User: Which sequence fits this backbone?
């Protein structure tokens, strides 16, 4: 049997089983490490539940777990991902993110200093995004029963009146936009994990997209928004084609891809359309709104490299086709799994 | 490098890395296993985020991760726990639970049939409680990087108008009630894990408490509600004493404890006041409301064995004292950790 640790371990610099026991060690961990690290971004208690004022509009609700390895990588960490990823899921409904919850699953022996740094980055990302972490939970499992640290966040946002965005809203004649270069996050993780260097470091694009979506919604009517994370742009566009029962034609040469990502993908035999992003979005909207929305995106720092990359057709419903740079056409299937596990 | 599995594994009866990749395998898992198992309790997509209608009142927000071992035990499973536990956290604010999110972290090799059964129990528990699971997420980590299955749920509930319940609301002169016997969940888990038998099987008390709290709120004004999970009644009452800066005097002989739990605790040298519950609550309220609330509790199936177990005093603020059955008084400190790890 696995009893709680004895008293002297209270000041041990690593997670012990008792930190998940709901007693004094748990309370200390929350009060003296997590709450200060969140830096005033929490309601204070992180207790059983937190009460917040009424929200006038419809609500968007979302959740994601984060298991990325390594925990820290160029451009971010599991902390920023856990905050921005869930914010982005809310933003893709056209919602303004308001509140997050944070659940930690910790492996016995995990360094408290690392936990504090992850929590600090979560607090900082939440503050930057204007979102509050209002409830939390900490569980501890034995050595070898988890891989250091997993985080789950859930989010609540308020929808704008009149917004109706969803993966089944794409219509023939619509235009497809992306907010910037594809593949940065996945390639940064891959290179960090395998210690690869390509003419300088690749950086994750991890960012919160809700301000970009706000300026887009101000500029025109959007039918579909999606952040192409796991499975990359190929998975997102396949999902949209299937949900809306339309065909999508991608103009492959127009998809923005950074030089370093491009050469790394070529070297490793990966398709950048399948590589994950964490700070980019794809939008489907009526052709008449496209210029105004594209211009608005390009004025925003996270949309500087926004581009029109394709169109929606009534032909080949459910299928994503690409016009290749040499004039041919190929079908891009839904990826089966993911080229690289544990990217988020 | 750890690539996604090849095509034939699509019909493999165990979790493969590709089930967490955001591609076709992920979509299949959600569409063909999780959604049917949830049984219409979900919004359909379990996609990035879900939109729900406006909620008029203040909101309660809560989250918990579940890492209990074994996954199935007498009286419940990790599935019922994940639903009822988060419902109870909301109910302890005086809220009516409305929506849940569900995040799964799966270990490569975990049997799909077991996942389906856990999800089915989650759907059933949500249906029984009148709560909808509206958003979800599935991540997969490699063999040995997690212990089978972890679940996170977050919950959103609507507060009754006028309700103001919290751990710092206890006042001298208040009365302490519990809704039933203490220690059932923790002892059931311990016995299931260690294959102990005590004159018949011990069963977890896992249950959703929001209907019980509704009848209590109808019957009188409540100052504090708490579900004594990890750390048991001792941790909950210590927290209340500390948060409210009051003393609590427990009449130990009046704390309801089942015979089997009592004898198991004696045999193992455990204190039932420190053992976790998953379907019980402790309430602190003004003395003049106590009889009406206690009577209302006893009319509800989950409050049949409700009892008045103590009182709040202005003396010894922050301290929980117990009058023992032989007439003495002892201080019951906040437990340091938990006697038994991974009980929820």
Assistant:
């Amino acid at each position: 049997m696995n009893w709680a640790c004895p008293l002297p371990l209270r000041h041990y610099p690593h997670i012990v089983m008792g930190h998940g026991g709901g007693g004094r060690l748990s309370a200390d961990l929350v009060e003296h490490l997590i709450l200060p690290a969140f830096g005033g971004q929490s309601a204070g208690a992180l207790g059983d539940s937190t009460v917040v004022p009424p929200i006038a509009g419809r609500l968007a609700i979302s959740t994601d777990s984060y298991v990325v390895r390594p925990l820290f990588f160029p451009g971010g960490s599991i902390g920023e991902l856990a905050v921005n990823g869930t914010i982005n899921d809310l933003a893709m409904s056209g919602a303004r993110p308001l509140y997050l919850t944070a659940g930690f699953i910790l492996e016995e022996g995990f360094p408290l200093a690392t936990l504090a740094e992850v929590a600090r980055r979560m607090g900082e990302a939440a503050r930057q995004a204007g979102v509050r972490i209002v409830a939390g939970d900490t569980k501890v499992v034995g050595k070898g029963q988890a891989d250091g640290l997993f985080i789950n966040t859930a989010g609540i946002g308020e929808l704008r009146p009149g917004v109706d965005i969803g993966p089944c809203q794409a219509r023939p004649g619509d235009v497809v936009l992306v907010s910037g270069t594809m593949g940065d996050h996945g390639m940064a993780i891959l290179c960090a994990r395998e210690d690869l260097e390509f003419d300088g470091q690749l950086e994750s694009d991890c960012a919160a997209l809700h301000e970009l979506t706000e300026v887009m919604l101000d500029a025109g009517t959007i039918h579909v928004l999606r952040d192409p994370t796991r499975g990359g742009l190929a998975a997102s566009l396949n999902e949209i084609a299937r949900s809306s029962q339309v065909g999508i034609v991608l103009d492959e040469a127009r998809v923005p891809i950074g030089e370093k990502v491009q050469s790394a993908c070529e070297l490793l035999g990966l398709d950048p359309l399948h590589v994950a992003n964490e700070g980019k979005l794809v939008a489907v909207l009526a052709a008449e709104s496209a210029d105004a929305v594209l211009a608005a995106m390009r004025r925003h720092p996270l949309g500087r490299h926004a581009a029109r990359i394709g169109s929606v057709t009534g032909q080949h419903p459910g299928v994503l086709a690409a016009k290749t740079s040499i004039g041919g056409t190929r079908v891009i299937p839904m990826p089966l799994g993911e080229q690289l596990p544990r990217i988020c």
